[in-house]
Amino acid sequence: MAESVSSGVYLEQVNQVGLQITQIGEQVLRESAHQLSREEIVSAKIQELIEHMRETMRNAPGVGLAAPQVGIPLQVAVIEDREEYHKKLTPGQLSERQRQPIPFHVIVNPRIISADNTGLEFFEGCLSVAGYSAIVPRARAVTVEYLDEHAESKRVEAVGWYARILQHEIDHLDGVLYVDRMRTSTFTTLENLERFWKDLPTPDVLAKLKSGLGNRGPYV
Ligand code: ZN
């Protein structure tokens, strides 16, 4: 995996980490985040940033958070899918999403090195597009290489919901949001998702809301 040394300017910005999650319309969400060197990853500043991101993600709560969402344009994201988040879903919904608990972990400088071209389409949301959701096609499986919080090289082959989380977070590090990939006419407030759509299978939702795709196309 390529590694480049980011300028100290970006590391300095860690001092200005946001207390609130950045919302769509803020430029940092549309920038390409900068890679970190191994030395930078193990620095106190980045370790503090990771700790802050973990707390922010858990408080939200969310299953993933990328550094641009706390205002920092660096290639760091945290992921954790806890069993307690699955209570609202039926066993059938969990199984069609291939959703299982994922322990907390940190991904730095991640790269998708291969993606399964089978698409899966489900409603997805983002802490930076608060209050909304839409059906987003994602690759069913991805292989990702990254560095962990100790700057050690890792490779993961992820399927289902975990693969979706990885694609969503890695998009953040490229300045891409799910609204760029969503089926546009399925875009809904969370309130209306609860009222009308959440229990319908995706093909039924798509049939009722004839929908095109955002300009990024479906997959990674
Ligand atoms: Zn997001």
Layout of SSEs?
Blueprint: H1 8-12, H2 38-41, H3 44-59, E1 64-66, E2 76-81, H4 91-96, E3 102-115, E4 119-124, E5 132-139, E6 141-147, E7 153-159, H5 160-173, E8 188-189, H6 190-197, H7 202-208
The structure holds zinc ion (ZN).
Zinc ion binds next to helix 5.
Notes on the protein architecture:
The chain has seven helices and eight strands; from the N terminus they run αααββαβββββαβαα. With 220 residues, it is of the alpha+beta class. Mean pLDDT is 92; it is low at 1-5. The chain has helices spanning 8-12, 38-41, 44-59, 91-96, 160-173, 190-197, 202-208; strands spanning 64-66, 76-81, 102-115, 119-124, 132-139, 141-147, 153-159, 188-189. The chain is globular, with a radius of gyration of 17 Å. It has a five-stranded antiparallel sheet with strand order 1-2-3-6-7. Strands 4-5-8 form a three-stranded antiparallel sheet. The chain has a single domain, classed as Peptide deformylase (Peptide Deformylase), CATH 3.90.45.10. The structure holds zinc ion. Zinc ion (ZN) is lined by residues 126-128, 168, 172.
